[in-house]
Amino acid sequence: MWLSCGCTSKNVMTFFSRRILRSYFHVLGRGRCNVAACMPEAAGFDGVLDRAGLQEFSVSNTDSFWAAVARQRLSWISPFHTAQDCDLNRGKIKWFEGGKLNVSVNCLDRHVHTCPERVALIWERDEPGSEVKVTYRQLLEMTCRLGNLLRRHGVRKGDCVTIYMPSCPLAVASMLACARIGAAHNVVFAGFSAEALAERIRDAQSNTVITVNQGVRGGKVIELKKTVDVAVESCPTVQQVFVAMRTENPVVMTARDIDMEEEMLKEDVVCEPAVMDSEDVLFLLYTSGSTGKPKGLVHTQAGYLLYAALTHRYVFSYHDGDVFGCVADIGWITGHSYSVYGPLANGGTTVLFESTPIYPDPGRYWETVQRLKINQFYGAPTAIRLLLKYGDQWVHKYDRSTLKTLGSVGEPINTEAWEWYHRVVGDGRCPVVDTWWQTETGGICIAPRPSDPDAEIVPGMAMRPFFGIKPVLMDSEGKVLTSNDTSGALCIAKPWPGMARTIHNNHQRFMETYCQLYPGYFFTGDGAYRSKEGYYQITGRLDDVINVSGHRVGTAEIEDVVNQCSAVAESAVIGYSHSIKGEGVYAFVVLKTDVDIQEADVSAQINNTVNKKIAKFASPDYIQFVQRLPKTRSGKIMRRVLRKVVEHDLNGLGDLSTLDDPAAVQEIIQGHNDLCSKQQPR
Ligand code: AMP
Q1: Phi, psi of 545 (to 5 degrees)
Q2: Are 377 and 316 in contact (CB under 8 A)?
Q3: First vs last Cα of the chain: how many Å apart?
Q4: Which atom of ligand 1 is nearest to the CA of 540?
Q5: How far is CA 65 from CA 35, 257, 306, in A?
Q6: Are 524 and 509 in contact, with CB atoms under 8 Å apart?
Q7: ω into residue 412 within 30 of 0, thus cis?
Q8: What span, in angstroms and rounded, lies between the C-alpha atoms of 284 and 286?
Q9: Relative to the CA of 636, which ligand 1 atom is closest?
């Protein structure tokens, strides 16, 4: 119905699957693959003989590359006439103009035509062993009922619906229902406070919110509906709140609230998909910037979907029938791209993980891998470091033989965690892909794979740009650094389909943050090192770079070395103002639980190791041992909080409601005071 070429989607899928299948037989000797094996969509590119040639082609013939892939990967209602119309100098980014499509049709209907009973979602509920499987047919029905319900309640094309829900099938159906009727969604991580939620609802000008009565995480009940009640008090635009029931406990319903599941049952299971332009908004996603005000990054339809699908397929080597286990919450970009849009666009089976890595015990991830037979596991280094601390026995207890690829995302993965992940979790046989990307990039931009099957993977390095990505490093004067074995500000030289188009209601801020610092380039805000071999390693946010006596050093770099000390579970390093050196190094260190060693000895070991592995100037002036680090519920260390403690600016600690455990901050303040009373800095 929606295919402009007049074929049925079934024919397209069969043709496509056949091409992919055929390509497996074209793997050449000595670990190098021919183009069809690397990427069946690229089989027709003239003069492209191998993977290196394909990478080169993708950046030097950007239009041909992306146009060919977009035609083959996505189902179009009508074809696009222009592959791209971009000018980074002006912050103008447009892909596949003239094309019309519907994202929910791409994620659901076309798979329902070919394999309606294939499992689309496996909802790994907080309660272990109570997973729920949802087929493509069921998910389409759920999405259509919800789309009709939203339409009946006045949600129109171009509106923005805020979704405040834990990872669950109804949350995915809510996202896809918005896409179906042409509304944008604004998923807010269900750990944000009422104030943070309200700020995002107001900025997005949402008139509709979707939530659940209560969330359940790590065995604890979270009062999500109550949080929404408080938030919407200060959101005059909100007219209606749809409430689904995650638990059996009733909640107070106001005149504004609608029982979502009850009303969905009254709706038809067919919902006419809206015809969307490639560049219509698909979603907003708020993320933190260098200022206190979160920015709503805007992603659009075709380019985002294509990029999420392609990276999902090739970075993780996802194949039909695999079970993809991304454990990120849907409230973050990783959940959007690799729990929802990428896997579903590829007709995959994707896990929605509702729990925590240590509930009910530190074996949770691996028990889930065994039970759900997960093939690709994608998690965050912070969780890996945490689990490493509990010891190998929790991993060994479970069968992980289904695992084929292990992924890491969100922050630099230190060598020790990488090696543990590879050796213990993956039994030394699964490639570990350290994937670098951001909310702004929409999908993975740098990762060890895709590459030739036996191409080396260096621990803790994102390494290789994805197709169509051309990373460049800039020096402090804004000049492109051309040599290898060098560090600089990481920019991307060419637009790619998955990148954010603007900041909602603030294109000026988009321009200033990403486009103006290095005119003609997209500035990522990260620093990177390019090795002698030309591989990329992310050294951390540039705002986390410390300048000690004129020497620049990344906090991530120091952390990596500190974490190599055998007694250390994890660490966070920050810079602080130092009267002589400009900045000094302050390390917060969490020790492993089972170590029997004096703190003074660990301090000495840390200093020696940093002296040895980086330089004397990088070795910490202060080492504070803490029970735990302040982290967001998505597992990111809140360095801002640590900085404020070290600067004695307790009034500036800001909103702590997003912390996983706000009590950690009090312990850190106390420990810092004790340390300062005992020790003078070096
Ligand atoms: P977010 O937009 O919240 O996903 O955060 C993106 C930021 O996380 C990036 O700008 C990096 O600073 C950091 N990041 C994400 N992935 C990696 C990675 N593989 N290695 C190092 N840093 C990463």
Answers
A1: -80, 135
A2: no
A3: 72
A4: 12
A5: 13, 48, 12
A6: no
A7: no
A8: 7
A9: 3
Which candidate, 194, 227, 202, places its Cα nearest to that of 186?
Answer: 202
CA separation for the pair 350, 341 (Å, rounded): 10
123 Cα–ligand 1 center, Å: 26
Are the CB atoms for 350 and 306 separated by under 8 Å?
no
Provide the β-strand partners of residue 27.
Answer: 33
Q: What is the pLDDT of residue 328?
A: 94
Burial call 268-302: b when 16+ CB within 10 Å, e when fewer:
eeebebbebbbbbbbbbbbeeeeeeebbbbbbbbb
Identify the three-state secondary structure at position 296. strand
Ligand 1, atom 8: nearest CA belongs to which residue? Answer: 410
The residue with tokens 């969307």 is: 276
Place of tokens 């007694």: 567
Going by CA atoms, what residue is nearest to atom 4 of ligand 1?
A: 438
CB 345 within 8 A of CB 308: yes
The two tokens of residue 122 are 């496996």
Dihedral sign of CA atoms 230, 235, 239, 243 in order: negative
CA distances from 90 to 518, 520, 671 (A): 12, 8, 49
In DSSP notation, 488-540 reads EEEEESS--TTS--EETT-HHHHIIIIISSSTTSEEEEEEEEE-TTS-EEEEE
**Below-70 pLDDT ranges, the chain:** 1-33, 288-293, 543-545, 547, 549-553, 582, 680-682
Q: How does 192-202 read in b/e, with b if 16+ C-beta sit within 10 Å?
A: bebebbbbbbb
Which residues, judged by CB distance below 6 Å to any ligand atom, belong to the binding site of ligand 1?
287, 333, 409-412, 434-439, 462, 524-526, 538, 541
DSSP H/E element including 407 = strand 405-409
Q: Cα–Cα distance between 82 and 383 in angstroms, integer?
A: 43
Cβ pair 244, 251 in contact under 8 A: no
Name residue, tokens 């993780």. Answer: 316
Centre of ligand 1 to C-alpha 439, Å, is: 8
Which amino acid residue places its CA nearest to atom 5 of ligand 1?
438
Beta carbons within 8 Å of 406's beta carbon, 6+ residues apart: 376, 377, 378, 421, 422, 425, 426, 430, 431, 432, 433
- Can you tell me whether residue 186 is helix, strand or coil? strand
Q: Is the pTM of this model over 0.90?
A: no
The tokens describing 492, both together, are 């991307």
> CA–CA separation, 156 vs 391, rounded Å?
52
Question: In one letter, which amino acid is 628?
Answer: R
Beta pairing partners, 124: 353
Rounded Cα distance between 408 and 185, Å, is 26
Q: Whose CA is nearest to atom 20 of ligand 1?
A: 412
- For residue 227, report the distance from its CA to the centre of ligand 1, in Å: 28
Return the residue whose CA atom lies nearest to atom 13 of ligand 1.
411
